[in-house]
Amino acid sequence: MNWLQSNRGRIALITCFSTFILGYMNAHVALFDVGAFVSPQTGNLINMAIRLGRGDIGGLIITLLIFGGFFIGCYFSTTIMGTIKDKKKEFFIQWSIFYIPILLNLIFIHVIHIWLLIFSLSFISGAALCFFRKIGDIEINNNIVTGNMRFIGNALFDMTVRKNKAKRVIFWTYGVATFLFFFGALVMTLLYGLGRESTFLVLVLIGAVPYLIGFRLTNDE
């Protein structure tokens, strides 16, 4: 695994972990909590319109918390990106912003209000979208995968019709990112029978792994 000897490889692996985790987390919330996704998608916007039209105030509040948390997460992460020069320190701060709310939601899983759970997970979804995007030289969407599908389709056209072999990297990179998000959701669904608390514990354990990768980041690249 020579690619793990470089920051590029380590950052790519961290991005892959975040993508899997976000797929898993979205499926967990959808299956156990509100039947919606904490990463805003087109479907959430449609749900918000439907709930507003039907006068479903409770459902409307949930949807607003999803979009509000995600927006604030994107805004907050942008304010600190690029302000820390040490790459290892930057990673630990960014990953902790992403990971600690997940850990706290497990610790307080029996008492936390659903609104706070939804808002906090939507917040870290927005933050993660800004923090963890790089696979090589390509910036992927780690939890709004419809954007990835556009790049996959465009790259496939260039490969098959225009015979542009250079687009293979784009095709496979966005393809891997999309699959990891899907695979995270699939794993969560397969573990559904373990129950809400145990499956959230799995999420916490997986989320701790990138800390081991972050220790190897350097400022040499």
Task: Write up this protein.
This protein has 221 residues and is mainly α. The chain has one domain. It has 8 helices and 2 strands, in the order αααααββααα. The protein has helices at 7-32, 42-54, 57-80, 87-107, 114-131, 146-160, 168-190, 196-214, and strands spanning 134-135, 138-139. A two-stranded antiparallel sheet has the order 1-2.
How many beta strands in the DSSP annotation? 2
What is the molecular shape? globular
DSSP strand content = under 5%
Q: For the largest beta sheet, what order do the strands appear in spatially?
A: 1-2
Q: What separation lies between the terminal Cα atoms?
A: 18 Å
Q: Give a short account of the largest sheet.
A: 2 strands, antiparallel
Number of domain modules: 1
Strand/helix succession: HHHHHEEHHH
Average pLDDT rating: 92
Helix run count: 8
Into which percent range does the helicity of residues fall?
A: over 70%
Which structural class do the helices and strands define? mainly alpha
Radius of gyration: 18 Å
The residue ranges in which pLDDT falls below 50 over 5 or more consecutive positions are: none
Entry keywords:
mainly alpha, about 0% strand, two-stranded antiparallel sheet, about 70% helix, about 220 residues
Describe how the helices and strands are arranged.
Elements (H helix, E strand, L loop, with lengths): L6 H26 L9 H13 L2 H24 L6 H21 L6 H18 L2 E2 L2 E2 L6 H15 L7 H23 L5 H19 L7
Helix pairs in contact: 1-5, 1-7, 1-8, 2-3, 3-5, 4-5, 4-8, 6-7
Write a concise synopsis of the structure shown:
72% of the residues lie in helices and 2% in strands. It is mostly helical and 221 residues long.
